[in-house]
Specification:
With about 400 residues, the protein is an alpha+beta fold. It has 8 helices and 20 strands. It has a 6-stranded mixed beta sheet. A 6-stranded antiparallel beta barrel has the order 15-18-17-16-19-20. A hairpin with a 2-residue loop joins strand 11 and strand 12.
C-alpha cells in the first residue's frame, strides 16, 4: 500500500502547484504534537515529530506507533439487493483474488489490475455482512473510484466515504487498544465493527509496517479524541510518514507508484502469493479478471524480471531511480532501484529493485550507479525484518 518516501525512497507525491492542500481530521493534533508537515497526495501530512524519524521507527518496532492514514481512500461497495455475495461476485471480476470465498469479518490484500496485466493499485478488501469495504491508496483513490464505478454493475452502489483512518502498529498495539475494546482475540486480517469510546469504528488487525497492529476507521468528528486517548498511553508515540516508509521498506512491502505501477505485473512484483488458488489456472474460478492472460502465463512460465531485496555493501544508502548493472565497469543497465534508504532496525542501508530473473537469486552481486561510481549490492530475500503479525 501507498506511503511517501520522505527521504527514503521516491519523492513524495504532491498536489498540483498552488492547489490548496486538504487536511485530515487529525490535522490539529499533528500541529499540537509538533509535527513537521509536508504535502503528500494533495494532503498536508506529518513527515515526522520532534522525536525524529529514527526514534519513531525503533519505537514502533519495540512498542507502538500511531499513524494518521486518513488520506487513503475508503470505498464501500453495497449491493442494492442486500446480498453481499452479489458485491463479491462483481468485484471478483476485476481483481485476481478470491472475494466470493472471503468470510464475513475477514480482510484480504488484493490488486486492481488493468487489461494488460499491470497493477493499477494495491488495496485491502474487507467483507462485512451487508457490504465490502475497500481501502485504496491516497494518490489513486479518485481513479480507483472511477474504475470501480465504470466496471461494476449498477446493482452495486460504489461510494467513497469520509472518515478518519488511524493505524496503531507494534508489538504492544493489542495491549493498548485492548484497554478500549475487545481486540485481543482478533487474528491477522480479522475485521470487526467495534465501539471505541462510544464511537462506531471498523477495526482490522492489519497494517503497513510488518508489525502486529490495527487499522481503525473512525468517524471524522471523533478521530482526534480517539487518537489522543491512544497517545495518552506511554507505549504509544506519534509516527510520521518518514518512519512509515522506512518501516515498510524493511518489511519488504511495495509502494505503489515506485515498486509497483501499471507497468508492473503482480508476478514480476513478487506478489503472486496474493493471487488466490481459486483464481489461478485449474482453480474453481480461474481467470476472468482484467489482465488474466498475461498474469496466468507469467505464473506458469515465469516473468522476465523480478522485484528483489538489495543490500548495499557499505554504509551509503542507494536511492530510488539508481540504475543497476551486472558488471562493475561496463554494460548497459539491467534494472533499477525502486525504493531505498537506511534501515534503522537492520542497522544498514536496504533497498528494493527489479533485476532479470537470471540475477534474482539471493547472494547475486549487482552494482548501482551513484554519483558516477558503481557501488556493489547483494540480492537479498525479503523481508529484511521478520514479520510480527499475529497468525493464530
Amino acid at each position: 500500500m501507498n506511503s511517501p518516501a520522505a527521504g527514503a525512497s521516491p519523492a513524495v507525491a504532491t498536489a498540483p502547484d498552488n492547489a490548496p492542500l486538504a487536511r485530515t481530521p487529525l490535522h490539529a493534533l499533528h500541529l499540537r504534537h509538533g509535527a513537521k508537515m509536508v504535502p503528500f497526495a494533495g494532503y498536508a501530512m506529518p513527515v515526522q515529530y520532534p522525536a525524529g524519524l529514527l526514534k519513531e521507527h525503533l519505537h514502533t518496532r519495540a512498542a507502538a506507533g500511531l499513524f494518521d492514514v486518513s488520506h487513503m481512500g475508503q470505498i464501500v461497495l453495497t449491493p442494492r439487493s442486500g446480498d453481499a455475495d452479489e458485491a463479491a461476485r462483481a468485484l471478483e471480476a476485476l481483481v485476481p483474488i478470491d472475494i466470493v470465498g472471503l468470510g464475513e469479518g475477514r480482510q484480504r490484500y488484493g490488486l486492481l489490475t488493468d487489461a494488460s496485466g499491470g497493477i493499477l493499485d494495491d488495496l485491502m478488501v474487507a467483507r462485512l455482512a451487508d457490504r465490502l469495504v475497500v481501502v485504496v491508496n491516497a494518490a489513486n483513490k479518485a481513479a480507483d473510484l472511477a474504475h470501480l464505478q465504470k466496471h461494476l454493475p449498477e446493482s452495486v452502489a460504489v461510494e467513497l466515504v469520509p472518515g478518519g483512518l488511524i493505524a496503531l502498529q507494534g508489538p504492544r498495539a493489542a495491549t493498548v487498544l485492548g484497554r478500549f475494546a475487545d481486540v485481543e482475540s482478533m487474528r491477522f486480517m480479522d475485521v470487526r465493527e467495534i465501539a471505541i469510546l462510544g464511537a462506531p469504528c471498523l477495526v482490522s488487525r492489519s497494517g503497513y509496517t510488518g508489525e502486529d497492529g490495527f487499522e481503525i476507521a473512525v468517524p471524522e468528528a471523533r478521530a482526534e479524541e480517539i487518537a489522543e486517548a491512544l497517545l495518552a498511553d506511554e507505549a504509544v508515540l506519534p509516527v510520521g510518514l518518514g518512519a512509515r516508509d522506512s518501516l515498510r521498506l524493511e518489511a519488504g512491502l511495495p509502494l505503489h507508484g515506485a515498486d509497483i505501477d501499471p507497468g508492473t505485473s503482480p508476478v514480476e512484483a513478487g506478489l503472486a502469493w496474493a493471487i488466490s488458488p481459486a483464481r489461478r489456472a485449474g482453480g474453481a474460478r480461474a481467470g476472468g479478471f482484467l489482465g488474466a492472460e498475461r498474469i496466468l502465463a507469467e505464473m506458469a512460465e515465469g516473468p522476465a524480471r523480478r522485484r528483489v531485496g538489495l543490500r548495499p555493501e557499505g554504509r551509503a544508502p542507494v536511492r530510488a531511480g539508481a540504475p543497476l548493472f551486472a558488471e562493475e565497469v561496463a554494460g548497459e543497465p539491467i534494472g533499477h532501484v525502486t525504493s531505498g534508504g537506511f534501515g534503522p532496525s537492520v542497522g544498514a542501508p536496504v533497498a528494493m529493485g527489479f533485476v532479470p530473473v537470471a540475477l534474482a537469486s539471493p547472494g547475486t552481486r549487482v552494482f548501482a550507479e551513484l554519483r558516477g561510481a558503481r557501488l556493489p549490492l547483494s540480492v537479498s530475500t525479503l523481508p529484511f525484518v521478520p514479520a510480527g503479525f499475529k497468525r493464530g
